Amino acid sequence: MSAAATTFMAGRMGLDRKRMRGIGLGAIPFLVLLGAWELNTFMGWLKPVYIPPLRAVVDAVFTLQEGCSALGILGMHESCLFTNHILSSLGRVGLGLVVGVPLGIGLGVLAGMSRRLSNAMEPVGVFANAISGIAWVPLAIVWFGVGWFTTLFILLNTVFWLVFFNTLLGVRSVPRTYEHSVLTLGGNRWHIISQVYIPGALPSIVTGVRMGIGFGWRALIAAEMIGGNTGLGFMIFVSANEYKVEEVFLGVLLIGIIWMVTDRIILVPLEKWTIERWGLVWRPS
Amino acid sequence: MREKLIVEGLSHHYPDEYTGMDIHALDNVNLKVTEGEFAAVVGPSGCGKTTLLNILAGLLPHKVGSVRVDGHEVKGPGPDRGVVFQEHAILPWRTVERNIGHGLEIQGLPAPERKRRVQEFVDLVGLTGFENRYPHELSGGMKQRVALARTLCANPVVMLMDEPFAAVDAQTRITLQEELNRIAIATRKTILFITHNVDEAAFLGDRCFIFTRRPGKLKATVKINLPRESRVWKNAVADPAFTGARDEILSLVREEVRDDDG
Amino acid sequence: MTTVSAPAAPARRDRKHPRLHRFLHQGGLELACVLLGGLALWSFLSHVVIPRPDRYLPSPGSVVFSSADMLWKGLLPDFVTNTVWRLLIGSGLGLGVGIPFGILLGLNRTVSDMFYPILNFFQSISGIALLPIVMIWWGTSEQTVIFVILYTVLFPISFNVLVGVRSIPRIYINALRTLGASRLQIARDVILPGALPSIATGARLGIGFGWRAVIAGEMLAGQRGLGWMIFTAQQVDLTAQVILGMTLIGIMWIVLDRYLLRPLEADTIQRWGLVQR
User: Fold this and answer.
1) Cβ contact, residue pair B213, C4, below 8 Å
2) Nearest CA among B27, B8, B29 for reference residue B74
3) What angle, 0 to 180 degrees and rounded to 10, lies between the N-to-C axes of helices A54-64 and A81-113?
4) What does the radius of gyration of chain B's CA atoms come to, in whole angstroms?
5) What percent of chain B has pLDDT over 70?
6) How many helices (H) and strands (E) would you count in chain C?
């Protein structure tokens, strides 16, 4: 083995050891917390109605899923309460992204293309973002009634404005010279949109999508509590009203885990990748 | 020899973006560049050089006067006039290869043919081996080589250059100037080169147009009687044909700068 | 040939109001068009298209009227103060606990490595999602809402401060140690100022999340305030009041964010930004 390869291997192993140490250290507070939780159950300091036993939280999954088969999960059979709520929330997120992201990017590019129009739309975007999210829930209930569409609307509204606003800022921050250089190469408007504006605004768009999913997820949970009839938010709200604390804990933990996994495993790497790959330094604040 | 670029009676006003004040940038400019000629435009900063270039490129519409390239009136940007910009205008999300081939891609040239042409220009500007790098991995001088190759590769009738070496360090600039001279001869391009650097203008140009300060107009034309093929910095600095022309241009430009101070 | 005299540039004044020109040139005209167009569309929809406007989309006029009515009765100022107070108390507690907590955790590399993931995890669980649990603990009380705000503010601030303290270059600390500074002096002269920019950023983020938590908390835990106002107005079909409340929520957040938190953050970073970011 060559010297370079050995150094390389050593470097890799060093990195791995560092990562292992990080994971090991990071696990300690979680383990302590779980231990304290179990100890609480064992010693009976706080009543199960305030802090349910860990065991009960795990059992809640089976209670909620009672009579549910693997096929039933996919078919959203009515006995699969737990997975139905998860799929219902995730389905809305998926639909919200499929509709909201292209719409936000499209209109954001259009508005960002003209400097004057984008200056005019900026305050509108700021205002729309300021009231986006849960503040729309009451009005959405008036318009669409309690249920599926109201919660979808809240999510769409949050995702759209964040993506729109960030796309607009991103397009506006693309240096004019890029546009000019493509024009002088004989490019038309379409070339400029697809080869200058969209790639140039991409880091900003990805940030917008990441923020949109983050705020959208929180808003969705709140919307499901107030104006929904399915979803994880609805589940924890109803369970709380019925004092089924273990189901509430289960739902809350899952809401956090789903967001964290999405953000750390998909969104953060995506954001880093777009920024690093092109060495792009300009970013709207 | 045919005249490739003809500017007649060109004047230009525009309102200042912030104050709304009217700015008179160009005043009755007349000039002609013949086929294969390297024309340098020199003038003090703020003399409307960049305005002139933007009008020639078609990025800025003109109302007074006419600009003709190869006999056609300029109405907007087009591939017949290639531009090398002052700042790094190559797209950071495209590799060297895809930046250089961008013009051909827009023209719709099939990929294999494009690849062949691109390689030719990659080699010409000395970037062989860097085809798949992204611009942020290149030095300032290399980025300008990419910009040059991109413009040449699209095969324009006239190449317009707006202070392309202003942002690189002095050592690199000298190398790039010699390279540009070599490439301009090899490709026999008609070039209009804008600069505020007198040495650069005298070194590169067949002829040199000197502009007044704002409102910019043509003040004088100086011919540099030194074959372009024989120009290298080492010899030029001692050649009276170069130094004479340079000193003449310098004194003409300094009259304008002195006015600025007074 | 050289006809130009220097300072009086050849630009002539042909517009009397440069400031107005700048405003119009930078999109002021378009903004006015967008706003007026929006209002016109809203009025048109409300007066002509929508069947029961007072329920589905009250006209801009009736929203203004409802605000006058609520102002007259003194309800609106009450609700606004309630919401602002709740945010202030919750955020104050959150910052008060979170900043020292973050600094303590950030001081030691091992400790900060240890707490980084769990803080990240709790930051991911939004305070709003926690509301049902807190409501089981304390019911629909003031305490519930304050706790949710506290929680929402606490984690972004602790997390940011931890990262901020950790990113202070060792060289500053070592420099002071060679001068014989005590631990306390190092904390006062390097760590606190070094962490200030991240404290400012964390505070802005935290209060931003906190603001949304107040509104949600008021809706769900039924405490009087702007969130409660739009929630109850919807239940009794006073849609004009809902829209009024939404507009107020938007305006108040812009005022808070643009004119207070962002300038504060920018100033802090500019003044104290010794840490390169």
Assistant:
1) yes
2) B8
3) 90
4) 18
5) 97
6) 14, 0
Residue of A nearest to C221 (CA): A226
| Nearest residue of chain A to residue C58 (CA atoms) | A139
Q: Closest chain A residue to C257 measured between Cα atoms?
A: A130
What's domain C81-230+260-272's superfamily in CATH? Answer: MetI-like (1.10.3720.10)
CB C216, CB C131: distance < 8 Å:
yes
Q: How many residues does chain B have?
A: 262
* Contact criterion met (CB < 8 Å) for A135 and C113: no
Which residue's entry shows tokens 């604390």? A245
- Residue B151, pLDDT above cutoff 50: yes
Q: Which distant-in-sequence residues (6+ apart) come within 8 Å of C102 by Cβ?
A: C157, C158, C159, C160, C161, C162, C164, C165, C195, C199, C202
Q: What is the pLDDT of residue C81?
A: 93
**Residue A12 pLDDT exceeds 90:** no
Per-residue confidence band for A157, with pLDDT thresholds at 50, 70 and 90 = very high
**Inter-residue contact C46 to C59 (CB < 8 Å):** yes
Domain boundaries along the sequence of chain A: 3-45, 61-277
pLDDT tens, B71-127? 889 988 988 999 998 877 889 889 999 999 999 999 889 999 999 999 999 999 999
Local structure of residue A146 (DSSP, 8 states): S
Contacts of B58 in chain A (CB under 8 A): 183-184
HSE-up of C262 (CA within 13 Å, CB side)? 8
The ranges assigned to domains in chain C are 81-230+260-272
Please give, rounded to a whole number of angstroms, the shortest distance from the CA of A182 to a CA of chain C: 25
| CB nearest to A138's CB, from C125, C128, C231 | C231
Domains in chain B, ordered, with CATH?
Answer: 32-80+157-262 (3.40.50.300), 90-155 (no CATH)
Q: Can you give the pLDDT at residue B22? A: 81
Determine which of A219-233, B184-198, C67-81 has the lowest per-residue pLDDT on average.
C67-81
The separation between CA A256 and the C-alpha centre of its own chain, rounded to angstroms, equals 10
Give the C-alpha separation, B65 to B73, whole Å: 10
List, in order, residues 6 or more apart from A120 with CB less than 8 Å away. Answer: C27, C28, C29, C30, C31, C33, C34
Region for residue A67 given its phi and psi (left: phi exceeds 0; alpha: psi -120 to 50; beta: otherwise): left
Chains that touch B (3 or more CB pairs under 8 A): A, C
Considering only residues C252 and A271, tell me which one the structure prediction assigns the higher pLDDT. Answer: C252
Report the sign of the C-alpha dihedral through residues B51, B54, B58, B60, in that order: negative
From the list A184, A186, A196, which residue is nearest B91 (CB)? A196
Give domain A61-277's CATH number out of 1.10.260.40, 1.20.140.10, 1.10.3720.10, 3.30.930.10.
1.10.3720.10
pLDDT in tens, C218-251: 998 888 999 999 999 999 888 999 999 999 999 9
Provide the CA A273 distance to its chain's centre, in angstroms.
18
Mean pLDDT for chain A? 86
- pLDDT for residue C29 is more than 90: no
Distances (CA, A) of B243 to B82, B180, B202, C106, C147: 31, 20, 8, 65, 80
Q: Does B219 touch chain C (CB under 8 A)?
A: yes
Give me the residues paired with residue B26 across strands: B12, B216
